Amino acid sequence: MSKPFKILLFLLPLTAAPVRATPVQASAPLADQLKRCRTLTDTTTRLACYDAMAVLPGRSRDPAPRRVLNEDKEGPLTTTLRTASVGGDGRWIFTLAQGGRWLQTDDAPLGRRPNPGDAVEVRAGALGSYRLKVKTGPSIKVRPLD
Asked: 3-class SS at 17?
């Protein structure tokens, strides 16, 4: 059976019985509401009918505002470096003074080898990523290990 034929077979029962155009009621089953909306001739009214069906009772159409991680903290995390080592894949692993560990996720060079006690700044990047900067060197992409 071809796909267009299956679609036609599915839609055929919806078009078989004519339905009188009446306003959508919240208690009517979904199929009845669809039939009522389908019979409306004015495009604006028909669209409003479908829109009214699309909203769930007790819910708003507007999406909830996105939550931001660490809302109470503003700005970057500034601390000192405890250790820095290169992993087997050539990417850096940083351990900060507070004990947090961060793994480099990009291939950007650091410029110089970081030393224990160096100032480190971790700030939020785009799309949930993080950027780490040692002293005045370039920032690199990192992700938390712990």
From this structure: coil
Closest CA to 37 of 56, 22, 15, 18: 22
Instruction: Encode the chain (146 residues) as per-residue pLDDT tens digits.
Output: 677 767 766 776 666 555 554 554 555 578 888 888 899 999 999 888 888 877 666 666 566 565 444 555 567 888 999 999 998 888 999 999 988 899 999 988 888 889 999 999 999 988 888 999 998 888 999 999 87
In whole angstroms, give the CA distance from residue 146 to residue 137. Answer: 24
For residue 47 the two structure tokens come to: 């669209």
Beta bridge partners of 122: 77, 132
Q: What is the value of pTM for the model shown?
A: 0.49
* Euclidean distance between CA atoms 45 and 38, whole angstroms: 10
> What is d(CA 52, CA 64) in angstroms, rounded to the nearest whole number?
19
Crossing angle between the packed helical segments 3-16 and 30-39, to the nearest 10 degrees: 90
d(CA 37, CA 51): 10
Domain ranges of the chain: 3-54, 77-144
Helices 43-54, 30-39: axis angle to 10 degrees equals 170
